[in-house]
Specification:
The chain is an alpha/beta fold. It has eight helices and four strands; from the N terminus they run αβαβαβαβαααα. The two termini are 25 Å apart. The mean pLDDT is 96.
């Protein structure tokens, strides 16, 4: 169910041990061919499918479209909160739900740049509420709950990129009118950060001039439907696991 559809007395009456999902995404450049709202559109569709299946077994807050996208800031249309500000925003969102009595909070992410501050936000919250063994504070990214390249024939990529085969296919499926021009002329921009196992500080222009990373030229709307189904199924299974948590164990 959607928090935005409920009155406050209805929220007050809810089971406080149900999973509360806070979708977080971004508004940022997605190459020459995809809209800046891509991450939010894709996560919104995953949420729609999962909510349709779970009904009143989980509560979904409105999608937070502002993300940590400073690495894309050179590209017009990108809107961003700096990492520390974004981390504090997530903490405040979670703390309001804790005040209302909810105990199982899941940030469901749809943008790679949110991962580091998102993990730090739930880490800091757990330290603050270290006496609360009943709390389950999670940060998760929707594409980590399935391995579509192992399930679906025809996929070229084996991981999520940026405005890539996977994201382009999903936009072609859900909002084809927003894909600018054809994609078959686009070229592969390789994955990888370089320097082995070290994490390298980077901005997007270090890695790509066009703004995309991956192989959008292989995208199709049919692949998009298959990807949505795979990702939504994985998230649904995960939220069922959250709902079944015994309230105090590590797993």
């Amino acid at each position: 169910m959607y928090l935005a559809d409920l009155t406050w007395p209805a929220v007050a009456a809810l089971n406080k041990d149900m999973p509360v999902v806070i979708p977080v995404a971004a508004v940022e450049q997605h190459g020459h061919h995809l809209p800046v709202y891509t991450d939010s559109l894709l996560l919104g569709e995953v949420v729609r499918r999962v909510e349709q299946e779970l009904g009143d077994r989980a509560l979904f807050t409105p999608l937070q479209w502002l993300g940590n996208s400073h690495h894309h800031i050179e590209y017009p249309g990108t809107l961003s909160a700096s990492p520390r500000l974004y981390l504090d925003l997530l903490r405040d969102l979670a703390e309001t739900l804790l005040v209302h009595g909810f105990t199982r909070l899941v940030f469901l992410n749809g943008h790679g740049g949110n991962v580091t501050p998102g993990k730090q936000a739930v880490f800091e919250l757990r330290q603050k509420y270290r006496e609360r063994n009943d709390l389950l504070l999670l940060f998760a990214t929707y594409w980590d709950f399935s391995k579509p390249h192992e399930e679906l024939p025809g996929l070229v990529q084996t991981e999520m990129g940026h405005a890539c085969e996977w994201e382009t296919s999903m936009i072609q499926h859900v909002k084809p009118q927003l894909v600018a021009g054809g994609v078959t002329h686009l070229q592969t921009e390789p994955f990888g950060f370089g320097f082995g196992n070290a994490y390298r500080g980077w901005i997007t222009k270090d890695r790509t001039n066009t703004g995309h990373i991956g192989s959008p030229q292989y995208a199709t709307a049919e692949k998009g439907e298959q990807l949505f189904s795979s990702f939504a199924g994985g998230v649904q299974r995960f939220l069922c696991q959250v709902a079944q948590w015994d309230g105090n164990s590590w797993q």
